[in-house]
Amino acid sequence: MIIARSVDELRAVLDAQPGTVGFVPTMGALHIGHRSLIEAARKENDCVVVSIFVNPTQFLPGEDLSKYPRREEADFKICELSGVDVLFYPDVRAMYGEDEVRVTAPDVRGYILEGASRPGHFDGVLTVVMKLLNMVRPARVYFGKKDAQQLALITQMCKNFFMNVAIVPMETVREKDGLALSSRNIYLNPAERQEALKLSAALKKATEMVMRGALEAESIHVEMIRILEPLEVEYVAIVNREFESIAEVMIGNTIILVAARVGTTRLIDNVWM
Ligand code: AMP
Prior knowledge:
- Helices cover 37% and strands 19% of the residues.
- The relative contact order is 0.13.
- The protein has ten helices and nine strands.
- It is globular, with a radius of gyration of 19 Å.
- It is an alpha/beta fold and 273 residues long.
- The structure holds adenosine monophosphate.
- Adenosine monophosphate binds at residues 26-27, 33-34, 36-37, 143-144, 146-147, 170, 172-173, 180-183.
């Protein structure tokens, strides 16, 4: 595995290899969810590039960027064992200059749900993804459905800017008990880890309701809130793939999302139906 720390190093390696490139952008603290993306990239491409970059521009003032988990050694090992060809591991100076042009998330979709709780977050996400895609120039890029709104906005950006890359959405990988894997789970103490199961339990309940034909969004919302109590819920939302609120679940065109705080840790989860 080659570790590239600058764009020049990255391009030198990639320009010398003739096949297709599959790309998995991450912020590190890699877990089995990340690995599923890497494995898919491994199967579908000649060369696999993973980036690890904790992007400062997607953290809001007051969100503690310095506390984001960093596990360089373990991450390198995981990449190596997963068959990654190139690990792109830039520092901030390799990624950002001063007073730069930025990408702005769309007015509505960029500022609801995650964007309402974290205004400006998606501007940072889209800007760094634009940079990374232009640096790596992959045939395919892999994103998790767990970050559903992020996936939708990146898909829209690639369309709006006529970018030549195939976006591959990947299913959420969960622990046996249902908890969606997340780099943030390590912040949970054992009691909080138990409380965190309320997110997947609420989504499971929603899925059961839909399966027995109870499609009304309002009733699903009420049931989910009941299960999530007493967690501090930021939102429960039932939207179509365009992220518009819907009154009734449409099979094949619905995402049910939840964001809640467990202790001081903010968790998100969703189901696609
Ligand atoms: P992050 O390092 O949290 O920015 O995530 C990097 C990529 O991994 C994103 O595309 C995420 O959506 C994806 N990801 C995170 N958690 C999971 C999971 N549990 N299952 C599948 N993909 C995930």
